[in-house]
Amino acid sequence: MDKFKTFIVNPNYNNIAKASYFIKNSDIIGVPTETVYGLAANAYDEFAIKKIFEAKGRPQDNPLIVHISNLNMLYDLVDDVCDIRKKLIDNFWPGPLTIIFPKSNIVSNVVTAGLDTIAIRFPSNKIFLELISCSNLPLAAPSANISGKPSPTSAIHVYNDLCGKIPLIIDGEKCDIGIESTVINVCNGKIQILRPGYVTLQDLESVFNYNIIVEDLSMSILDKNSKVMSPGLKYKHYSPNANVIIIDSSLENFKKYLQSKNKLTDCALVFNGEENDIDFNCYCYGLESDPLSQARLLFDKMRLIDTKKNIMNIYVRHPNIEGIGFGVYNRLLRSSNFEVIKIV
Ligand code: TXA
Ligand code: MG
Asked: What is the pTM of this model?
């Protein structure tokens, strides 16, 4: 049964104060960030953290990211910063980069799912920063979706997933980036990308002038048999109700491929403008040449397709994997459960 009437509110001063009151009273709320919407709780409040896991249906062994609005908050949460992490902080915070640190003793095992490390992000979204500062607490926040579903990039997405389970969602309009932060680990003097995002391998390399090795493990750790470095990676993710199938081909071959498909039960997720040229039920997820436009639209379009009850298969045009496109491809790959059809 629903516990709450869920309100979507503007990010004015009174509503931020109200949200902060909820946080201090062990409630969890929906918040905008520059990446995707988060489901936030006081990171020091185990009772509230458990509510996050419950509301999302999130497996207990998948740790949360803790968000801060100043570096004093960081020093309470972590045991060691190290020179590489300092440089990452100087160059990429505030912003869409999550860094793994050795955790301090005061952080509950419920937040880190029993790991001795903690994932921390200093976001750049003004509304979220205001809420963290007003609460004067670090906020744990996973993406505000039901576990396994596409992440939310607008307040209404959060409402659709969590209505009745949370009291409040702060509406910060559509997210600027649209896919989750880049998650990185620092290990034996190397930087490891565990989840690709807006901050790319090239961005990281350019800061370290190639004297520090940056490895992208994000695609290899998608392989179910390899060692799980980031626990969230072993679960089904970003999945709409319909099957996602990525088609790696030219537009011409994509069109030919669709000829044998059922127009009533299947649809295509294509680049802007291509829909005019394809005789099929098409949805667009941005410009082929602009991966940020794809990141902004991908989850929104998956959620839109979910509202059409009859759709069973979504055939997706393969994105270019340069820059943030690599993050877009990573989300698509996981939502498709690695189903890529290559047509040459
Ligand atoms: O952009 C984002 O990062 C969004 C917004 C709300 O900040 N948050 C987000 O959280 O995407 P979530 O919970 O959906 O994804 C967090 C990822 C998971 O894959 C989790 O396993 C990983 O970060 N993670 C958290 N703590 C970790 C740790 N100590 N070591 C390795 N991976 C960790
Ligand atoms: Mg998530």
From this structure: 0.96
